[in-house]
Each structure stands twice: as structure tokens, then as C-alpha cells.
Amino acid sequence: MQSPIDETTELEELEEFIINFRMRRLKLGFSQTDVGSALGKLYGKALSQPTISRFEVLNLSYYKMCNLQSLLQKAFLHNPRPTSEEFGHLAERLGMEKKVFEFGFTQTDAGLAMGKLYANDFSQTTVSRFEALNLSYKNMCKLKPFMQKWVAETDISLNNPSSLSNPPTPPKPIGTRRKKRTCIEGALLVALVTAFGRNPKPTTTEVAIIAEDLGIGREVVRVWFCNRRQKEKRISLPSTHPPMHQPEMFANRIDPYSANH
DNA sequence: ATGCATGAGGC
DNA sequence: CCTCATGCATC
């Protein structure tokens, strides 16, 4: 029902774009939340995100990293999110002071940029899933234009700081309270997974039976199956590993550990 | 980064 | 009720 060939080609394109997207985000020192916010006003959604901590690590040195060529790029691809300690090692190897990295793009700089962010839009969740290709193909194709727009805008603002538009205050449409998240683990989870294996699309009646057997709400079971089915449709990436493509320019890794064997 | 939840749209 | 896009909350 799908067009494997076209889709494969397009997917490669998409992956390439996403890698560049991610690099840019990191280079600018923006967190996923920042991007989500900056993308905003298109939908005018509200969001809040506890990802600020990540922000520090990210912005503290990529700016400099990007100014240092291949060696750093290799390092970047090998490990896009080094810890402060790893930065120390890297700086050492390059004969540089760690603080040179740290202050290439300061929190102040980044904070300044952040202060000019537009209204909110996509959440950190969405940006994260987008970068990890952890969404349906269709969904990512839809999101791509927005991400692209962000890339274009940050491109301009890099050379012209004052061009960043200002910010209509983001509305906070608090409304109905959300149900407390149910925790499904252990035997319960096993039981559901097993049931799912037997039949991924249980009828209302079957759901009721499962719910009763497990002693949990029917709605919880129903939603669990829905989410599970949806999960199966995501593309997802073996993200614990390096990027999928290995342009020859980045073919040589600098990982000291892997060189030994 | 990801699990459970919500809501829109479709049948 | 389902699928889908999304995100709050939490790991």
C-alpha cells in the first residue's frame, strides 16, 4: 500500500534534513523547547519544558566547535551531545582551553536569543521525536516545512541579531485537567503485551475482559492498545548509534576507544 | 526520551 | 470506537 522506492528516497532526504536541522539547533545552542517555541505562532500553543538543563551543555560549546573543522565535525557526529567532561577531553586534545569552548557561545548569548522567541508552538516532545525520526513518515513530512522555516530564520539571525522578531506574548490556555498518568509495568505490562501479540485490535468486549482480568480500567486498556498500535507505526531510528549516513568526510572516527581492538 | 492521555476527524 | 497528531508528566 506504500511506495517503497519513493518512500525510501524521500526518507533519506528527510533524514539528511533532520541531521542538518539538529546540527543547527545545537550550533545555536537552542534546546528542543526553544525550537518548539520559536516555531510558534503558527498554532499558538502553550508549552513548558524542563529541558533547560540540557540547554547548558548544548550551548556551551558547539558554536566554537563549528568553527573548527573536520576534527570537530567528526567529534560532533560521533557524539552530538558531549558532557562537560568530554568537552574537557576534546579541548585538551586540541590543545585548547576548555573555557574557550565554554564561552564561545555563552548562556547569556543564548538567553538573549531566547528572550526574543516568538510564541510557542511545537513541544519538546515533538521536536525530539522529529529529530529521532520517531514519528510516522507522514507526520514528519508535515513537520518538515516548519522546521525548515526555523532553520532559515536562525540563519538570518546569525548574521543579523536584531532581525529576530519579537514576541507576542504567549497565551496560556489552561483548561481541563489531565488525568494522572497511569503507570503500567511488570506483570501488568507483560499481560498487555501478550494480549497485544494475540490480538492487537481487541473489540470493546475483549477490552473489557482484559481490563477486568487485570483489574484496571477499561479506558486505560483501550488507550494502551491505541498507543501501542500507534507506536508500531512510527519510523524510529536506532538512535543509540551514530547517524545513519557516513559521508566519507566524516568516515574516520576519532573515538580513541574504537580504534583499539 | 518516552509513556499514557487528549481531542479532532472519520467511519 | 478508531486513527493520528501532539503534548504533559515523568523516567
UniProtKB/TrEMBL annotation:
InterPro entries: HD, Homeobox_CS, Homeodomain-like_sf, Lambda_DNA-bd_dom_sf, POU, POU_dom, POU_domain_TF
Start-end of DNA-binding region: 177-236
Domain Homeobox, chain residue ranges per copy: 175-235
Gene Ontology MF terms in the entry: DNA-binding transcription factor activity, RNA polymerase II-specific; RNA polymerase II cis-regulatory region sequence-specific DNA binding
A Pfam family recorded for this sequence: Homeodomain
Keywords for this protein: DNA-binding, Homeobox, Nucleus
Domain POU-specific as annotated: residue spans: 6-80, 79-155
GO-annotated biological processes: cell differentiation; positive regulation of DNA-templated transcription
Source organism superkingdom: Eukaryota
Positions of region (Disordered): 158-177, 235-261
GO cellular component: nucleus
Subcellular location: Nucleus
SUPFAM superfamilies, A to Z: Homeodomain-like, lambda repressor-like DNA-binding domains
Protein name (record): POU domain, class 2, transcription factor 3
Species, as recorded: Orchesella cincta (Springtail)
